User: Fold these one by one.
Assistant:
Number 1:
Amino acid sequence: MSGPIPGSDEPAGRGADASPAGRDGAPAGQADPSPQTPATDTGQDDATGDHRTRRRSRLLRSAFYSATVGILAAAAFAVPLPFIEFVPGTPTAIPPLVEIDGAETTELDGDTALLTILLRQQPTVPTIGALLDDGRALRPLSEVYPPGVDRDELREAERERFGRAFDIAAAVGAQAAGVETELVTEVAVMQVLADSPADGLLVPGDVIEEVDGDEVTAAEQVQEATRNADIGDELELRIRRNGQSRTVSAVLADVAGEGQAMLGVGLETAVNELRLPFDVQLSEGIRIGGPSAGMMVGLTVYDLLSEEDLLAGRTVVGTGTLDADGRVGPVGGVPEKMRAAAEYGADVVLVPAMQLDEARTGAPEGLTVIGVEDLDAALDALRQDPA
């Protein structure tokens, strides 16, 4: 490679001066007594090129590392892990949910609301935060959404459960207010887990009429039968499908891997027949799932239909299922619901009696929490509590 000599205007490629006059007065045709050093490659261009190449490589590595860190950081906040966090939901006022037609109602002196939770599949950072916080609860994804179950279908099934729970609670509340009612219930199959004992025997929509020859009208009766059985025991079920009754047998198995005999179905106590002297309906567009609002719906319907001032200006919230016999049953997310109740400014919180200790443990200081076993106990608690 050739190039200009630094600090000179000498053209590239010239060594000794060959001009006719020579240099420094030397005769023409003779060599210059002090010839110029031949133009040679100093290596500066190569050095400059190598420097630029190394600098470009450093920039590329820096950009790659920055992008990788950015992607990992984004994933930590965006990519969900296989855990579900129970998050306190905003309490939902109950009176707007209840539509009564054909009966005189009284204006409520106070507020009633049902407590809910939100289910969130959290990414890495919030999950770590939940693990480090005793006040937050995580559940494995498989416990909340069983494998093979479509989430959208499950959510829709839970909304249907809310509707059926509403019908039962409204009838029980009306009955407590002195209204003559006729309520006939049945056990409906809502979900069948894949590869469970019930898979291939039962389908959603089936009605279980008998278990081992005993008539059942509530889901709790079937659940009790499986709890009292052992893994490998055979359960004889009389079911109704499309108006036709038939008998099937299922061998119970450890579906959840917890050493407990299970059938592998989701059941619901459904209203087969409800007769009231007026119409009670759930407002349209409600997107609440599950049966945990039963007690509060029954209490609100009672207060709307009776002459009693049950609320006495208070904000009463609560959670708990309500069966056709007026019994209050357990629900999930109790600690989270207590925090929601406190933030809502509740004066009184009603919970299932069997979960009172759990509720009080998770309740903020100063929150009045009362455990009740049935709707009558809930009514009595509000009559006696002056808070």
Note: The chain has three domains: 49-78, 91-113+154-181+280-387, 182-275.
Number 2:
Amino acid sequence: MAFRSNSVRAPSGAHQNGATARPKSVEFEVKHLTINHIFTGTIRAEPPAHVLAHHSRKGIPMFRKTVIAGLAALAPAIGLAAEPAPAEATPPPTPEHTITGNVGLFSQYIFRGLTQTNRNPAVQGGFDYAHSSGFYAGTWASNISWLRENASTRAGGVTVANGTYGDGGSLEWDFYGGYKGTVKDFSYDVGTLYYWYPGKINEVFALAPAPFNNVPKADTWEIYAGGGWKWLTAKFSYSIMNKTFGVLDSRGTWYLDLSANVPLGDYYKPLTGFTAMAHWGYQKYRGTDPRNVGFAPAYGGATPNNDTIASYKDVKLGLSYALPKDFTVGAYYSKAYNANTLGYGSVTEASGGGLFGPYPHNIAKSTGTVYVQKTF
């Protein structure tokens, strides 16, 4: 690398007296060179200093030889050191509009501790839009089966799958939007989410006596607010419809979600890419569905409320690993507990009063799930 410096001047009075002349000591001025800063490669001249030098027999000042040789040797090092240190990359500005997508294959679909696919595989995916101001909106969908199985019976030792939906009932399609942001290590999120379950109510219920002929669709609308600190989050969801997931008189039903997603590599480098997850949730139902009168034999003739039949708590523990190309693989254990058999049990599980659960298998039972997911 070329660099610029002040020149070294030989004294104007230096001369030779011939081959037979003896070396003559002369005094001349040189500028003492110093490196101003090894990283910038600049050289500055100090005030003139008188240096005593001798001319050689060939007339080349010995001191000049030394300076030239020294500079020649030093030049490569200065050239290398003089390269400017690379500036830290400036992060690109946050785009005003961002659209992302995700798709995943799961061994089953678990929602709030309950299997939605009777422990069968699920394909899930969605799209999200985010504005730089913090506003966002998105949609997400998954196959399900619970709405075609939640009124199953058992006859002659054979389970007859039946549900509140006669047509459709195989899809959950969600729509959501809100506003979120961060303040240092803290985050916040407020929004709304609508669960749509396309399909038609099973016509057989139209033949049932009241109140059992009043069967609503499972569409549900919630508002939510959440906050977080680093890898800890809390979210509270509140139902504003009177038929939460198909349960009548349930406006005000809520769900509390406490979760932790810990990036293990932040604490132990060999585990970079691994994330440990832990979750605890509480689903609390409000009101009393008129159809709960059908459960009265299990409660001494008294009609139980929605809290008794449908409320529960759930836990989840798992681990995920981030792969190249935005793939993620993971596995987790989940279980809903304090879940009433009349609301979530199987047709083979008795609950008193000659009543049994409504599903082919208990959908709240502890289970394991594995998955692979891709974001783009």
Note: The first strand starts at residue 25 and ends at 30.
